[in-house]
Amino acid sequence: MTQGPARPRVFLVEDEMMISIMLEDMLSELGYxxxxxxxxxxxxxxxxxxxxxxxxILDLNLNGESSVEVAEILAxxxxxxxxxxxxxxxxxxxxxxxxxxVQKPFEQKGLMAALKKAVTAERTG
Length: 125
Hints:
This protein is of the alpha/beta class. The chain has one domain (9-124): Response regulator (Rossmann fold). Helices cover 39% and strands 22% of the residues. The chain has helices at 17-29, 41-50, 68-76, 108-124, and strands spanning 9-13, 33-38, 55-59, 61-62, 65-66, 81-85, 101-103. The strands form two sheets. The protein has a five-stranded parallel beta sheet, with helices on both faces. Strands 4-5 form a two-stranded antiparallel ribbon.
């Protein structure tokens, strides 16, 4: 039996279980496989160092801790990522201001646009 092309893999970092379930469903409908989710900062940092992903979605606030360290690990590994947040993004590092961000609650269309923007920026950057 011949297998079709591999689906792109998304590393998901999200502390809210219901949001991660919704995201996994949304991503599956968009043609992505999900790796994770990582729900705690330590797990997210460890997995960011190991995971073989095409793109990542990072909740900016993981149980009260910033996921910027995870973003930095992914950037060093040339894995594109987007931020997802229900908060104001202004409190986070200016070095990551160029990273696409989706506001929670988000819709499938906005999520897809942000993922494409992140992957395109990585290829052209």
